[in-house]
Amino acid sequence: xxxxxxxxxxxxxxxxxxxxxxxxxxxxxxxxxxxxxxxxxxxxxxxxxxxxxxxxxxxxxxxxxxxxxxxxxxxxxxxxxxxxxxxxxxxxxxxxxxxxxxxxxxxxxxxxxxxxxxxxxxxxxxxxxxxxxxxxxxxxxxxxxxxxxxxxxxxxxxxxxxxxxxxxxxxxxxxxxxxxxxxxxxxxxxxxxxxxxxxxxxxxxxxxxxxxxxxxxxxxxxxxxxxxxxxxxxxxxxxxxxxxxxxxxxxxxxxxxxxxxxxxxxxxxxxxxxxxxxxxxxxxxxxxxxxxxxxxxxxxxxxxxxxxxxxxxxxxxxxxxxxxxxxxxxxxxxxxxxxxxxxxxxxxxxxxxxxxxxxxxxxxxxxxxxxxxxxxxxxxxxxxxx
Length: 386
Description:
Layout: H1 3-11, H2 16-28, H3 30-46, H4 55-74, H5 80-102, E1 117-120, E2 126-129, E3 134-138, E4 144-149, E5 152-155, E6 167-172, E7 178-181, E8 187-190, E9 194-199, E10 208-219, E11 228-231, E12 236-239, E13 243-248, E14 254-261, E15 264-267, E16 278-280, E17 284-289, E18 294-299, H6 302-306, E19 312-319, H7 320-331, E20 334-337, H8 340-343, E21 346-352, H9 356-367, E22 371-374, E23 381-384
């Protein structure tokens, strides 16, 4: 983990995505947690400004000094190490008082659980979504812009018009899925390990554009006057009203778009140019090779690419190394496969709402693989040796 990123988190200026990354790093081991606490203490001490102490901080400091001086007069021997310890404590207390009065502590410093679904508002504020309850979200003027109930967040189409686009970002961790209904009634189902940046309310006369990192199934509300564009970094998907799946995880070699119904246009340029766009028909998948920037289109069984929305893991003639990625995202685990031959072996299977142990045992019984499961931290680590 980069020290710069940790310091940004400590200062409260890290983005939601960075904050989650740092939290996962902290929770990974006791050593990481100790390093974080040390960096935080050093940062607090370094930001302490002697001339900017508050009156309360001065009082706290003088009280500590008085105690130390009195103790020194009453004791014949000097406990040097203990004095240093108290001095360090005083510095931290004074620094904390200074930063608090200056507003140096931000909401982003509140620990974010690694398995939390996170909503980042346009002002950078972080909201933890509790799937076991419900909540309302309001804008700066107190207007309700959206409501959340269980694993679904729905934005209000009747919220006041805005002169400029205001964006929220929703982040779903590994091991979970989540539904969001945008202000135009477009339904988006986010897969594990996915983030979606979107306007709180679309503006009339402008295209409807969202930004995705990961995988999602879009059921776009039809509006011929306002095209809907999904920006997946390497590829843009333009539609008027249709159902399609987009998968564009950063670590994947290909960005894939599968059309369920309707029609879509795919393009790589910043602005849409019809003569350069690739048109898809229902039942087709476009696959963009990120490194070569080349695109191919073929007929597919769309159910294989949308089954995840129902908790089903499906793969057809997929190499084991690709299957591992699906399992890691779906179950929020880490899988190491030390068998190179196994990684290149192709498999076809479908598992509907079963445990990871069930899948591993199935591979063990049929293909005779050997594996171990450890949990040194909050995340399971599976090692496959054969």
